[in-house]
Amino acid sequence: MAATRLPVSLIARTAGSALAALSTLEAARAADMPLAPDVPVFEKLDGKLWIVTLTGNLQATPRSPGSDEYTALGYPGVGIREAGTPQRFSTPDDGVSFSVYDSERFRLGPTARYVPGRYFADDRRHLFGLRDAAFAVEPGVFVEYYPVAWLRARGELRHGIFGHHGFVGSVGLDLIQPLDRFQFSIGPRFNFGDEAFARRYFGVTPIEALANDRISAFTPGSYATVGGLTALTYTFSEQWATTGYVGYNRIVGSTADSPLVRRGFGSPNQYVFGAKVDYSFTMPALF
After folding, report:
1. Is pTM, for the whole model, over 0.70?
2. How far apart are CA 227 and CA 230, in angstroms?
3. Distances in Å between the alpha carbon of 173 and those of 50, 92, 132, 152, 243?
4. How far apart are CA 169 and CA 154, in angstroms?
5. Alpha carbons 99 and 181: distance in angstroms, whole number
6. Averages of pLDDT over each 10 residues, the chain, 287 residues
7. Could you name the CATH architecture of 49-284?
8. Spatial distance between the Cα atoms of 258 and 218, rounded to a whole number of angstroms
9. b/e per residue 151-164 (b: at least 16 CB within 10 A)
10. Domain coordinates of the chain in residue numbers?
11. Phi, psi (deg, nearest 5) at residue 231
């Protein structure tokens, strides 16, 4: 029996009608179905971040101003800066500071230092009859100026509380030389104090001289030292860095004639040796 061959035009019309019907059916089903929920889009909002640097500092320093005996002194530190800003240069002999104004060339803010005291129990033989000169805290202000990126000038003016009530200050200049992961700095230092500071730590009253019987009475007019400090920092990573440093100051002026800086009681040559470790991390800014 011979197969019946349908015309091609008929097949095309039939297929087209079927496809149209199928499309109509799918459209009807889609109209009855709920719309798919929109895919959520989250925008990343970068909040303000701080970089907090915690510092542990350990140094060998004169037991008290003018002493020829040394003691270990450890103290912490903290620094805060906004993420994305470079870390400011500092030296281990800077006072504990906080910037209230910070630009490319200038920094200004409060600062504070600790001054160890002199006590009879430290040296009963030589300090017999002398009054104790208690430790002091020296709050004040600092200013920094960068004439060029590799040179920093810093000055501090402070006032003592508790141990002494005089005005003291320091002026320093630092040459800064970075080299890969290392940073080397070196520069001169000048420290000064008024008569109230000098008399507290270097003066000897007639009664004290009589009781001690080894030194003469002395009234200094002021206090001054000249010297310098050098430091070398190595940065391990964004989180860790360490610094070693050596400093020297020579007591000059009228204070250098004090019997308390002579051999057996003290020395005009004041050294400091130390190391510090820095650890940095980020946190959301608190304000």
Report:
1. yes
2. 11
3. 29, 13, 34, 6, 18
4. 11
5. 26
6. 46 48 49 43 57 93 94 87 84 89 93 93 89 95 97 98 95 96 97 96 95 92 97 95 98 94 91 96 89
7. Beta Barrel (2.40)
8. 6
9. ebebebbbbbeebb
10. 49-284
11. -145, 150
